[in-house]
TrEMBL record:
It is found in: Cell membrane. Gene3D superfamilies: MetI-like. The keyword Glycoprotein does not apply. This is Carbohydrate ABC transporter permease. The chain crosses the membrane at residues 12-35, 78-102, 114-135, 141-165, 186-208, 266-287.
Amino acid sequence: MLAPIRRIKTEPLLFHTFNYAALLLVAVVTLYPFLNTLAVSFNVGTDTTRGGIYLWPRMWTMKNYEAVFVTGHVAHAFWVSVARTLAGTVVGVYLTAMLAYTISRDEYMFRKPITIIFVLTMYFSAGLIPTYFLIKDLHLLNHFLVYILPGLISAFNLLVIRTYIRSLPESLVESVKIDGGGDFRVFVSVILPLCTPVLATIALFIAVGQWNSWFDTFLYASSRQNLSTLQYELIKLLSSTTSSNGSVSLAAGVKQGGTEGLITSLSIRAAITIVASVPILVVYPFLQKHFVSGLQLGGVKE
């Protein structure tokens, strides 16, 4: 007796084919701008103006990156940005989590007024000029702490962490207090370990904001070269690499060599973009596993 012929179901096959094709298209559309910028950053500037650079440089060169790092200010500004990012992220996450735990406790009588005050800051701002005079009165001008203190606690981050903490079982807090532990013991031993996903998410938000910030340097610390950040130095470099014919000579100290001695605003912009974005791209994979779960659990209250 012959075995029955198995029919191939076409619906699942078509669905998976379309699904994989759509995901591949999204991946290509997402990665192409970055890969194209990377290729332009390694291509000779005068050759880039001809067009036709897609995923691979046509004429390799390191002149664009030499122009970025030749002055020496960029290397120092890089470490200033690293310092402000690390300090701002660690202190900001810890203090925001501590305040979020405080206003999440029902027995704390001032939790609602404090929450309302922070929520109001999301809708109203005093403006740039009053903020500048406040920073000046606090003696934070041309001081490293101007990068840390003004944006130490964000109302959005505070509400996200508070919502996450309120979703935790109250029995865990009560068990620690029965054993004689206080609120600080509860916060360190219970809240912080259980809040790892949402804290990693908030840490990524704060780190990206600190790393990309340059306007505060321009306003409050532009007269101190030793406090200049990477983004501010790159902004100054980008604004200086403009000319009427679209190309500029490399900064002083770099020996020119024919057409490779010239860069264009397009090529230097690509190099600046790569220099500014690579550190965040290196850090992000380590926090990615906590990002989605932390944002989902911390942003929705059941």
